[in-house]
Design brief:
407 residues, alpha/beta, Rossmann fold, Coagulation Factor XIII, Chain A, domain 1, six-stranded mixed beta sheet, five-stranded mixed beta sheet
């Protein structure tokens, strides 16, 4: 059962060059505006009990899309269906009256979120308890900090028992303990069959809470799919934009040249995308100049798109030699039984070396065999390190270890 369905969804705003052009347009009927499409041609679906994450740069159109989903804005194009009761946390403090107390705003905002007056009255104590505002609940909300606003807004929105919960950056405010409390409540909401639309710049939270994700870029859907894949694509683009780096190949003749590089999967098929933990092999072909006495060798570097060199291996350091496959043709494969790098785009930098003089690079090829990695799990960082969690023996041994052996 679909909880949210959008087909060709679009939202446009009028932009005027001068402040008085709006009034002049109204008076003489001549168009003096241009349309700015904050969202254009967006299509997606969310099943009941599903969780969709929204990622993208500031100004990309995410907030406009959330406003459409929450019913706070009307689309200019396309179709949008949201089944059931909606509850939204959009702009921090939106819908609150600054002169009213927190308790009075519970009744005001609760009714606006779709609850009846009786429902709000029956849930006031629960809302106050979850918000942890204590005596501040009876103070005007204009005296609240951003963190206190969040506590109250989140408590009201989630207590409304909505079918669809829409959250915009709400977990970016407040202390870590309350963020964890909110995250746990959202997770329970989804597990109970609620539908979540969650927007955040924290990609870890999007991966953790959502199975699916949309990347919004300049008002359009740039990517849609599994949250791990979409978040990795977005993070990779963000890293790439920080650098103006280049890739290229050396064209000058070399006594030992790289003739071909490819990345293959466990089946030996060329791979443009792999998952963290997959078996991956980098294949390298070398060509030696005729009558050269070079002892063929090479080094392979795995480089992330932002220029971070994640790993380098060389035949000289590992004491192996490429296999001769012809008079002056050689082949070597660098195999990773479990590829541990996390999501992003990568490429191979390959350099040839003389096994007898390994400090000199004879031919350097950058940006070879580009491929991407998707991490389907929620662990974070650069790569997955083998590890175990354990208890170190008996209670006495643990106390001795913690105490450093002190009496």
């Amino acid at each position: 059962m679909r909880s949210v369905s959008a087909i060709g969804l679009g939202k446009a705003y009028r932009r005027y060059r001068r402040p008085f052009d709006r009034a002049r347009e109204w008076l003489d009927g001549k168009q003096r505006h241009e349309l700015f499409w904050a969202i254009r041609d967006a299509s997606f679906e969310v099943e009941a009990g599903g969780a969709l994450g929204l990622v993208g740069d500031n100004g990309a159109g995410k907030t406009t899309l959330l406003a459409l989903l929450a019913g706070a804005a009307t689309p200019n194009a396309g179709e949008l269906v949201v089944a059931g009761r909606r509850s939204a946390i959009l702009e921090l403090g939106a819908g609150f009256h600054p002169e009213f107390s927190g308790r009075e705003n519970i009744h005001l905002v609760g009714v606006a979120q779709g609850m009846s007056r009786a429902e709000v009255a029956g849930r006031v104590d629960e809302i106050v308890e979850f918000s942890e505002l204590g005596a501040f609940i009876d103070q005007p909300v204009r005296t609240y900090s951003s963190g206190m606003f969040l506590r109250l807004a989140f408590s009201i929105a989630t207590s409304a028992e909505p079918d669809v919960l829409i959250v915009d950056e709400a977990l970016a405010v407040g202390d870590q303990r309350f963020q964890l409390k909110c995250t746990e409540r959202i997770a329970r909401f989804v597990q109970a069959g609620g539908t979540l639309i969650f927007c955040s710049h924290n990609l870890y939270q999007v991966k953790k809470l959502c199975r699916q994700a949309l990347w919004i870029d300049r008002g359009r859907v740039a990517a849609a799919g599994g949250s791990a894949e979409v978040c990795d694509l977005y993070a990779d683009r963000a890293r790439t934009r920080l650098l103006s780096g280049h890739t290229g190949a050396a064209d000058a003749p070399s006594v030992l040249a790289v003739s071909r590089v490819e990345v293959v999967d466990a089946a030996g098929l060329p791979a443009t995308q792999v998952e963290t933990g997959d078996a991956v092999t980098v294949r390298v072909w070398l060509r030696r100049a005729p009558e050269s006495d070079v002892e063929p060798g090479c080094a392979v570097g795995l480089v992330r798109s932002d220029g971070v060199v994640c790993y380098v291996a060389s035949t000289e350091l590992d004491d192996v030699r490429p296999q001769a496959i012809g008079a002056d043709e050689f082949y070597i494969a660098l195999h990773f039984p479990e590829f541990t790098l996390f999501g992003g785009s990568y490429h191979c930098n390959v350099a040839t070396i003389d096994g007898r003089r390994p400090l000199i690079m004879l031919d350097v090829r950058e940006g070879e065999a580009p491929f991407s990695v998707v991490n389907p799990k929620t662990d974070w960082g650069v790569c997955r390190l083998p590890h175990v969690w354990r208890h170190d023996g008996t209670q006495a041994a643990v106390q001795e270890a913690v105490g450093g052996g002190r009496a």
